[in-house]
Backbone:
């Protein structure tokens, strides 16, 4: 099958060029970080378990017949582990170590990434860890293969994926989450302009580890329940930890919001919607968040959102909402308060 996805082009090249052989029908394969753009020639569904944190890709993989997990299993062994590694170094090292841990002796770990998304350093990272690698490149991606023997990856790599309390925010977070090691400027600005009269049942669309949710629950005493929605299962877990003291006032949901939030009749929604799909800027993603927010609100319900000024969401907001008020405009941000 001909692929257009550069990652799959690179893997197909690795298979055809004998960088790594096909796996046998009785083998067990673990694939980490791949979305629904895969096929049976590279990832035989009958023998492949997928690890995918993100709700949308996980749903697409299940529809293709794959077994999908939300984490790397610690209680299984695999003959091959294939990792589409992320750019962030701590997350990359964690996923490589987690894959290495469940790999059988004599099995192979295959790592692949675009050159401009961490692929160029895959080889050096693994060589510096004392591993004997073979590697190749195709479609501006790097593919590295390591056969497991008695050499282990550095022990601290596994800990790089752990949840930890960030010293600046005091909140639970982990590498790989949006703005995991800092306060996002847009979210901080929205916190400064939160309407004090938010009340009833609301939601934080794209809640991340819960920075904005925490502010809503702390500052708006009349909020009885806040739903935190995020596509990344790790973010939902972190937000739940950060709101643990609030009991039933907070409820986390692992949801692909553009596909539907599953909520209706809300009194308010707050959000700092994403506008990137991978490394590519996507205005459509923010527009989908706005549309789903409109769907989830009751009549006269309120949306409060921050967005980068250049994204030009005004037309979408004016089309969907009966009233649109600009609470703030300055620098690269705009904050809107909209009534359905």
Residues:
């Amino acid at each position: 099958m001909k692929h257009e996805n550069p990652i799959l082009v690179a893997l197909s090249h690795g298979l055809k060029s004998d960088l790594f052989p096909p796996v046998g029908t009785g083998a067990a394969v673990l694939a980490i970080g791949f979305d629904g753009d895969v096929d049976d020639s590279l990832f035989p569904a009958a023998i492949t378990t997928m690890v995918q944190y993100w709700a949308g890709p996980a749903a697409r993989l299940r529809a293709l017949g794959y077994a999908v997990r939300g984490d790397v299993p610690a209680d299984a062994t695999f003959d091959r582990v294939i990792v589409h590694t992320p750019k962030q170094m701590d997350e990359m090292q964690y996923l490589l170590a987690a894959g290495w841990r469940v790999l059988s002796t004599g099995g192979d770990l295959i790592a692949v990434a675009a050159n401009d998304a961490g692929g160029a350093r895959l080889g050096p990272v693994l060589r510096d860890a004392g591993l004997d690698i073979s590697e190749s490149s195709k479609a501006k991606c790097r593919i590295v293969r390591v056969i497991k023997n008695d050499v282990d990856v550095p022990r601290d790599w596994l800990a790089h994926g752990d949840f930890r309390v960030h010293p600046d925010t005091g909140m639970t977070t982990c590498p790989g989450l949006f703005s995991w090691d800092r306060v996002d400027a847009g979210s901080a600005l929205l916190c400064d302009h939160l309407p004090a009269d938010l009340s009833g049942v609301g939601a934080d669309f794209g809640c991340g580890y819960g920075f904005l949710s925490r502010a809503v629950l702390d500052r708006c005493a009349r909020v009885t329940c806040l739903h935190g929605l995020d596509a990344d299962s790790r973010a939902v877990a972190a937000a739940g930890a950060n709101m643990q003291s609030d009991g039933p006032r907070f409820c986390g949901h692992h949801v692909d919001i553009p596909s539907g939030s599953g909520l209706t009749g809300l009194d308010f929604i707050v959000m700092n919607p994403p506008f990137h799909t991978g490394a590519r800027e996507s205005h459509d993603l923010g527009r989908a968040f706005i549309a789903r927010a409109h769907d989830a609100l009751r009549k006269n319900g309120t949306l409060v959102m921050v967005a980068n000024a250049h994204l030009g969401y005004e037309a979408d907001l004016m089309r969907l909402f009966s009233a649109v008020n600009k609470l703030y405009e300055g620098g690269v941000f705009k904050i809107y308060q909209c009534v359905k």
Residues 32 and 282 are 24 Å apart (CA to CA). The mean pLDDT is 92.
